[in-house]
Design goal:
about 100 residues; mainly beta; 4-stranded antiparallel beta sheet
Length: about 100
Amino acid sequence: MYAIIKSGGKQYKVQEGDILDLDKLSKEPKEVIEFTDVIAVNDGELKVGGDVANAKVTAEVIVEGRDKKVIIYKKRRRKDSKLKRGFRRSFTKVRITSIAA
């Protein structure tokens, strides 16, 4: 059984026991989160739209943190122009505990 959920403007395909890195949700570790924005559920047959109106996915927060730094480097040739920046994404790591369709 799997479900497709929406979080932070992105869609994720999840199963029970999966571990995801979502955009930062500002939650404490071991806190339970319910995702009610479920797009589709597959439990032998695919259900979408009105069939998943009451579906929800529960997850447990493992930890919050920041990813490794990604270097963004832009250089314009022959212009003596360059730009170097770093970016670290903040994330919330969650474990999917159950899918209720």
